[in-house]
Amino acid sequence: MINFKLLSTSLKARSGTLTLNNHVIETPCFMPVGTAATIKAMTTNEVMDFGYNIILVNTFHLMLRPGVETIVNHNGLHNFMKWNGAIITDSGGYQVFSLAKLRKITNEGVYFNSPIDGKKVFLDPKKSIWLQEQFGSDIIMSFDECTPYPADKKTAESSLDLSLLWGKQSKLSITKENSNLFGIIQGSIYDDLRDKSLSGLMEIDFDGYAIGGLSVGETTDERNKVLDNIAHKMPKEKPRYLMGVGTPEDIIEAVIRGIDMFDCVIPTRNARTGFLYTKHGILRIRNARYKDDMMPIDKDCGCYTCRNYSRSYLKHLDNCKEILGLRLNTIHNLYYYHELMSNIRDAIRINEFDNFVKEFYDLRK
Questions:
Q1: How many other CB atoms are there within 10 angstroms of residue 308's CB atom?
Q2: pTM above threshold 0.90
Q3: Catalytic option among 90, 144, 250, 260
Q4: Rounded CA gap, 200 and 180, in Å?
Q5: Where are the beta strands (DSSP E) in 171-314?
Q6: 161 is known as an active-site residue
Q7: Which of 316, 337, 215, 328 is CA-nearest to residue 272?
Q8: Among residues 124, 260, 263, 298, which one is catalytic?
């Protein structure tokens, strides 16, 4: 079962607790992405030791490999990947966007050519929900069409209408009381379409509400305009989730507007390409100037990497394409993101979030 408690606010920013099947998550929270049932380069124990207790896993890719039967044989995803926290599963709707060249959309569902072997694969709301329930997810997402950007208004409205239809079918496909189904708001950058989508989803009545179709190519200003319009209209008593966003700056701006939950591949993906997050912005470890730099990534960071290794060593590992470099970079970025969210929560609770935001940006000047 799901229970969301709003504990404090600072302007529109919210702090609370989300209880999912006995897992308690403090919000605002960031959820690392484990597409293939792994946070790349990390063990699940390491991820939990950072302080994370919820991660996101991808339904579509796990359906293809290893397949639902293998995961069921392990008694679900938690045991398969040895993760003791909560799991949220993407419905496969994002792949309707990201695999546009490999799929055909119908009202009934989506036909894909598998990106692995080219075989035909069909996914519809009923199958998506069934897969997520078989996986034992703590939050499952309704099947939707992630609207591409740019999209003219007619296309965006047709897309959100299809997502509403699939949202109703997703709700009707639920068989387990503890599935905790979230609906996904679409409508591209059009305020009236976002309003229409939210209104339709609230009529269906979901356990939480997510904003989809952002971070797909729109500008930061366009994204923030969408959030300005829709976030405060989402049910106050239920969690608000912004899918696929983002950078530390994106998260700050969304929290300002009342968002509670985030996921993104950015901290782990960027770690593998040498983009490391600090309070002063991004440090690009591949820059030549770090060859003999004896400083840690961030002298005020308490992560294992910063406590033990220099920028010089990390640059050396990157130059040599050593696996250890990927791990140490990922450790740092995941630690940074967890600390960022913890500091955001603390600032909201003492009603100092506006000062926190000012300091956050001042340090990046």
A1: 10
A2: yes
A3: 90
A4: 18
A5: 181-185, 208-211, 240-242, 261-264, 275-278, 281-284
A6: no
A7: 328
A8: 263
The amino acid at residue 288 is A
- Relative to beta strand 110-113, strand 120-123 is antiparallel
Which domains does the chain possess? 2-264 (3.20.20.105), 273-365 (no CATH)
Q: Is 95 exposed, middle or buried (0-12, 13-18, 19+ CB in 10 A)?
A: buried
Tell me the pLDDT tens digit for each residue of 243-262: 999 999 999 999 999 999 99
* CA contacts within 13 A on the Cβ side of 41: 20
pLDDT digits (tens, 9 = 90+) for 275-284: 999 999 999 9
Please give the Cα distance from 161 to 188 (Å, whole number): 12
Cα 86 to Cα 22, 31, 53, 355, distances in angstroms: 9, 10, 6, 32
Amino acid occupying residue 96: V
H/E run at residue 154: helix 153-172
Alpha helix locations (H) across 257-297? Answer: 266-272
Q: Is 90 a catalytic residue?
A: yes
